[in-house]
Structure formats: structure tokens, C-alpha cells
Design a protein that fits this description.
The complex is a heterotrimer of chains A (about 425), B (about 375) and C (about 90). In chain A, about 30% of the residues lie in helices and about 20% in strands. Chain A has helices at about 15-25, 60-70, 130-140, 155-165, 185, 190-205, 280-300, 310-325, 350-360, 370-375, 390-395, 400-405, 415-420; strands at about 5-10, 30, 75, 80-85, 90-95, 100, 105-110, 110-115, 125-130, 150-155, 175, 210-215, 215-225, 225-235, 235-245, 245-250, 250-255, 270, 340-345, 350, 415. In chain A, helix 1 runs parallel beside helix 7 and helix 3 (about 130-140) runs parallel beside helix 4. Chain C has one domain: Ubiquitin-like (UB roll), CATH 3.10.20. Helices cover about 15% and strands about 25% of the residues of chain C. The chains are: A alpha/beta (about 425), B alpha+beta (about 375), C alpha+beta (about 90).
Chain lengths: ~425, ~375, ~90
Amino acid sequence: MIDTRPLIVGAGPAGLRAAITLSDAGLHPVLVDHAPGIGGAVYANLRAQPNLTPKLTREACILRQDFERVRPRVDLRLSTAFAAFDQAGTALLTGQAGMMFKPRAVIFATGARERIQPRPGWTLAGVSSAGALQIALKTTGTLPLGRLLLAGTGPLLYAIAAQMVAAGRAPVAVIETGNPLRHPLMALRLPAPVLTEAARYMGRLLLAGVPILSGTDLTRIETRNGALIAHTSRQGRWAEIAVDHIGLHDGLARNDFGISAEMTGQTPVFQAGDCRSVLGRWAAEDDGKRAAEQVLHALKATPGRAAIAPDQRFVKTQTLLAKLFARAPSLAAPDLPDDTVICRCENRSLGDLKQALQAASEQTQTTARTLRLTERFGMGPCQGRQCLDWVAALTADTTSFADLRGNRWPIKPVRVRDILDAPDFTVDPSHQDLK
Amino acid sequence: MQPTDSYDLVIAGAGIIGASVAWHATQRGLRVAVIDAKGPAAAASGASDGAVSVASKRPGLMANLADASLCYAREMAQHNGILKGIFHPRPTFIFARSAPESAALDRLTRMLHDQSLSVTIHQDGAAQTSAISGLGKDITRVIELQGEAHMLGYQATHAYLRAAKCDLFWPRSLEAYEPGPEGVRVFTSAGEMNCAQLVIASGIGTMGLLPNVPMIARSGQLIVSDRGPASEPNLPGPLTSAAYLLDKTANGRGDAGLPVVIDPLHTGQVLIGSTREDHGTERQTDIATVRRLLHSAVGCLPRLAERRIIRVFAGVRSASLDGLPIVGALPEEPNVVCATGFEGDGICLSALIGREIAAHLATGQSSPDLAALTPGRFSSQEAIPA
Amino acid sequence: MSVQTILWNGTPIAFLPGDTIASALSRAGITEFGLRQTALPAAIFCGIGQCQNCLVSIEGIGVAEACLTLCDAAQSVRSLSDHRLTESAHD
């Protein structure tokens, strides 16, 4: 029999809620995630050993309970990558529970990716995204050895710092590019649950005496005597902080690489949660439910909800947060030296990019194609997730982010063996001829 | 709109052919402009594997032209030639897995000998005796050729355009042209240009411009791997199935097996290709086809099973109905020259075609070697075979 | 309960239930997982399988993200730049 069960990619809050909604309507969705457990990044502690990690929030517990209820009807495939969905309507999953099949609907719930601004030294071992530290904390209750420093901007930094404090590993400091505490009145317009959470985090940081250096840039990282030296700058005043591990975070963006442009076939495809619009975990659950209802509607199983606009409350909250964390206009963006690595995959620097732009501007425009083929930006295994935001910003007058993105599959690198080993349920087994 | 500019030569198409014509024409002192709807190497030249191969050509004229182009490119890669660092000599390995493929290798051997080509057979024998370790048991026979090369289409395109002292315009597409006694009026998406002569080398973009030159778009899917472990030896050259030769010849491949090429890149990555489809587009790739290609590739080189695939893409080649490129002045329009329909052979033929077209433009004399490629061959036919 | 270990380039490293290769190495103070072919260090960066900066070679699995792969007892894990890989991969 040809397998046509609906596919949900990503087992975070949006994907789990979508799976619950589809199952409740009598469908048997396939839910795939490349991580070894459910929860996505935000609820990564759902896959942790009990008692090791920070306590689960109430929402996480409810979500898990609801998912446990429908678990027998969901084909959960963990440690399995979603590799591709082609115009013929074939989906390819690879890894532990890989397969090829023809889902009659697809929901992408692939969450967010962290935006991390390139800085000299950001490729050193020991420098990671702040989110990576949080995942380690949430899944195993541990953090890397030694002194920790958080830097960048955005509300997630404070959540992570507070969780570090709770784990007994307070960071040396939080270096904040923006100046969110400058506008207490604006902050008071945030919805109550957000404010409560923020107050709890800030309280914990204050009690632990964690310095929050706002309006400060982390301009450069180097190694000295086995330590990482963070060079900071605040209105022209320089300082150095010696640590062992640095977590960087400059906000969140949709993790929608490769999941939209090519999908023009007959199969209904929806995006849900942060990969559609970065509005956080509460909105994500709501959106997962909504996407599932749209699938049901498309498959004529039930009347669907017509409205697809996200809940305006969540949009307002994010807009307000963006304003709060906006970089003060007096602070100029740090002038990066030319040897700053921009593309971490192919080791291409800002100087390489400038040179390409300059060589071209003597004659004519540099095309996105040239930046990819000749300059290698976006051509590495991360497919530009780390660099293209910045390449697009630096070449804004000639190329667009959309042109720079190849949007090619596989969505992430997959082993040839895994592609070949994936059982094929796109054809009737009696007619199979491969192998 | 007033004419904006006047040139000896306007070239529509900044692919490897247009770029080679541009450089060769500026070497002869012509004032040249190159326009392109997108930019340099934006279509087939940018999507190609970069194999400069004589062995894969049809015996006879095409193999001779390819060989002449290869010898000329080899010269341009020496000393401080324009292709230095871009054209890399390397061996080619062509293998057989079946009786029809082995017969194709025999035909190849005869062709290289009968036509006295510069590409020679270094070794012909069982898989175990070849210079590549770890070949799959599917492979029964391998021929190692010497004299072929690797040249990435986009690198050669950029090298030609960088060195050519000419004006470049993109995005600017050729929309129409009007030959007259004074030269050619060229209507582009960004206004009018005047030139004495026009070269149309815009690959599949040529299709709409020259309705009397019948062409088809033939797409191919390609797969790129990761760099692999540092310890893994890179292939010394491409590993090509003999079925690939059959695919390009008029006979077709019958039951020879899936044509597959495993092409090493200098990064340690490998490029696995390629299909030949009459209905695909630049954006169309599909899982089933890619899996068949990979299955075939792993049968030839089992260690590929451990590589990770980072990207799958498709390129579109412009092909003529009789399988020969279309090169030369248009019938009745001596000031308009077209160069298209290379179906992937543009990388190999670009050096020669650029030189010959530039010579034709500068002197009015065209090479008798290219006579068979003239676009006039279609209008002289009674009916075009579909 | 005896402590379980993986073998990192031949050296035993303890791991806890639920540990990924990355978290076990990180707890042992190992932040650099060798050099990538572009000469940049292999190390944890994004932590969620996107950036491909933490690839290692895992016995029985092949090249994989250290941040996504759970530890398995006595499993041999090597850095991609470790040349001893040659012997194990081609014998």
C-alpha cells in the first residue's frame, strides 16, 4: 500500500500540538524530528532524564500529557532527519527511522534559528550560540566547565542567564548590545505572563549579582593562556573579560530554509510556529493547532478555521520586545575587521566578500549566483543558515536574501547510505524495482 | 528612446561561450559589450561539472572539434595564459558494467585511434588494476585516459570576462534585434544598443529569439557531497560510466545501465551526475531519480555510501534536434551570429568556438571546420525530424 | 551503577543517561573536536543540528552531529581530522 499519512516536521510545541489535533480528528500523522527526543529547543527538557534538569513548566507538562494521550496514533520518528519533499509529492526521511512516502499533507514546524552576528573569534572552540548552552542545560543539566559569559541581545539571553544561576553556574556577566532597561514604562505594556517571567529572571540575576552590561558590544574574542578573552566596548571604553565559554545570541529568525520555495506540487503544505513567524512558544502551540485544522480542512475531514493570521497579542508582544532591545542610535555598529569569518562552513571572510563586491563594482553588479559559486557564501553544509543574513545585509544594494538562498534539498546533509536504505512506500510494493 | 551606445560587437549571453567570444574579440581590437538577463554563468555554465572531455563526444566531427578545443585550452593554461589555474589536466576513468558498456569502450578505443586524437589510453583492464582503489564489484573494466581536463564553467567565464576589456551589463536581456545596412539595432530590457555585429550565445534563452533554429531544453540533475574525511584520498579524475557515452550518441544506451559520472572537486567534495531529461526545468529535482543515481554511484564506488549529500540541483542544457551545436551567421542575416545548442559540451568547446567566432567577426572568413554547425542547416531541410 | 564510557579518539570519556556526544565531551572539558577541512575548529556552535560545525565520526553510524547523537556504551567516536580514521575506515 502507498503510505499517504500526513507528515509533521519538528516535534517542538507547534509540531506536537499539530500531531495532537490531527490525531484527535482520527488521523495517524507521521511526526519526525532529528533530535533524539520530543520538545524541540524550547521544551528540550521533555527529553531529559527526570531530576537532572530544570523543572518543567506547567505548559510543557500539559503538552506532554496531551501528547501521551494520542501517542499510540502518532508514528513518532526520532533521530530521523526530514531530508526533502519534492514536486512529485514524495517526502524523504533519513536516519534511524527513515522512509520515503507520499504524505497527503505536510506541516513544517521547524522552529527558529538563532541569529548570531559574526565577530572576530566567533569560530573559536568554546564560543557557541547561547541556545546551545541552554539545550545542554535542559537535556543533561550540565554546562561546560569553567567561567561562562553571555553576549549579544534579546530576551532569550536573560532566560538562559537565569537558568544558569538556578543550576548553580551563574555567568560572569551578560553583555547586552541594546538597552532594554532604559524604558521601564514601555516594558510595563508587555502582557502579564511575559512580565512575570521577565521579572522572575531579572530577580534571579539581581540576587545572584550577575552584572548586566547594557549598551555594550562584544567586539572580539581571542585566546590567551588557554582562556577566551572577550573584548567589550561601551561608548568607546574598552574592557577585557577572561572566561572559558561564551554563549552568543543576537535574536531569533524563522528556520524556514529550504521548506517553502520548491513546494509547488499538489500536496497541501503549511508552516506552523516559529518557522512561520517567530512569536514564541505560546503562539507556536496555537499555530500548530491552527495548521492542523487547515490540514483537516484541506483534506475535507472537518470544516477548517478560515483565519490564518497569528494571534495579534503575540505579534504585539514581539514588536514591543524588539523595540525594547533596539540598539541605541548612539552606538554605531562595530566595524568588523576584514579577516572576520562570515561563512563558517567555507571559511570565507568579510575581506573576501568586500573584494568580490569591489572587483565587480568596477564593471557591473555582483550577482547572488556569483557570491555563491565563486565566493562560496551559502554553499557549505549549513546552506547559509549562519552567514546569509549578514551577506545580504552587506550586499543589500545588489542582492537579496531570497536570491542568495539556494533553497535546495536536502534540508540538512544526509548520508548517501541513509538515502538508499530508506524503505520506499511511494509505490505499491509489488511494483518496486529498486534493489 | 535614443540609442545609448554603439559597439563593434554586442554579445547576448554571459555564459562560457559568450565570455570566450568576448575575450577573443577584444584581443582582436573589437569594442565589445556583453549583456545578460541574469549575470555571468547564470545557467548551464554555472551548473556544469566542468569536465573537458573528448571521449564523451560523438565520433567524427564533434570529437575532432573537442580535441582541437582541448589542445587550444591546454595552450591557454600555460605560461601566463588566460586559463592558467582554471584549466587543470587530469586523467579520466571510463568504466563498463555490462556487455553494451564494454562495447562502447571498444568503440571509444577505435575512435581515439582512428581520429589520432590528443587524448590517449593510458590503461585498459580489470577494475582491480586501475589507479582507483575501492571500485565496486559492478565494474568489470576501466579505461584510464590521459589528456583530458577539468575546468569549472563559472571560473572560466569569470576569467574571460575579467580579462576582456569590454563593457558588461546585467541584468539586461536581449528582447529583439533589427539588422540593417549600418549594422544591428539591439533592443534590450534596458534600452537600445547599436552594433556592427551581434552574437547570440544565450543558451536556452536563444530559443525565443530565433524561432527558425529548433532547440530543446534538456535538464540534468546533479548531486553534491560533503568534503568527506580528511584521510580519504580524492579521486584523481572523474569516474564515468560508458553508458554516459552512449547517452550522448545517436544510438541511445538501450540496456547498458544508468549513466553516472562521479566527479571530484578540488575541495574534496564529489559531484554525482547526471540525468538527461527532456521535460525538466532548472528547479526540478526529484527524490526517486536522485536515489537511482546514488544507487548507481555507490555500486561503482562503495565508499560514497558514507558521504553526506549537501545539495541537489538541476541545470538545463540547450540542445539542437540533430545533437550538433548551432554556430555561425544566421542565413540572410550575416551580421548576426549565433552560438548555442551545445548540450553541455560548451565547457569543452568554448575555447575553440570563441576563437573561431572572433576570427569570423574580425575577418569575415569562417572556418570550414565549423561549416556543419551552421544554423542554415535547419532552414535548408525539407522537414525537421521531431 | 558502573559509569558508562564512550571512546573519544581512543580515550574513555564518561557519560550520563541522556548525554549527547557533545554534552559528554563538554563535561569532560573537551570543547574542540578536531579541525574541520577549512582549518576552523570543529566544535559545538548551534547545538540543534543546523550549523554542521560539530561533526564527528561515530562507530556504526558514520559522520554525524555530536550535538544530536546520543552516547552509546563503549562506542568509538573520532574527530574527522584524526588520521587514525584511515585504518578503521578502510580495513
